[in-house]
Sequence to fold (265 residues):
Amino acid sequence: METFQNKVVWITGASSGIGECFAKALTAKGAKLILSSRRREELERVKKGLNATDSDVFILPLDLLDTSKVDELTKQVIDKFGRIDVLINNGGVSQRSLVKDTPVSIDRSIMEVNYFGTIALTKSVLPYMIQQQSGQIIVISSIVGKFGFYLRSAYSASKHALMGFFDSLRMEVYKDNIKILIVCPGKIRTNISMNAVTSDGSKHSKMDESTVKGLSPEACVEQILNGVKNNKEEIFVGGKEIFALLIKRFFPRLFSKMIRKQKAE
Fold:
């Protein structure tokens, strides 16, 4: 995709962080946006900060924990814009709890949002992309979609699941000119740790020290859009933590020793 001019782009998790930065960057590139997250008031705030007309930005609240009406929402997008060129699966929730302390109900809710919610929306949009014989799906996974880490068992599992699903889908829709980019961010300076789920379902409400020092969401989005431009299938975005992926691949025993010494936060 060489340009986003007049492309219809649906962004989940658009009320803050990476999603909000996507909205700003793509508005500047002339895209027409659908902004989704649970909180309408935050979506309205994001919309007000964009240099765009009302006809080019459509606010569509969506809770990935409940996708029973996802086909209805997709139809609203089609009725308004006639097509969907890009789906950015950015919505999700992180975790901060030990396996031994976390009830299965919390594991299920995290998986429901990050995995089942994401694939439900993708499956709803997919027939329209197949019909128009074009499309781009951007999936925000994580480096913990490649390896596990302290306090993130269910979160890591959900991101591993996304990797397998979208790698498979990429092969199936190649003939339909639908491209899929999986993004594995490391530490990005967003509120992800603040909103992370704890063992009792409450918010973590703390900013991880490493997150504060992370890459800015603006820089993250810039790298993702370069990945789209360069027709990448998978990219890793972040700081020095990204090198852990190379160490795991080529020196797995060393990786195991190193990762255990990392601060659990």
Notes: Residues 8-260 form a domain with the Rossmann fold fold (CATH 3.40.50.720). The CA atoms of residues 65 and 112 lie 6 Å apart.
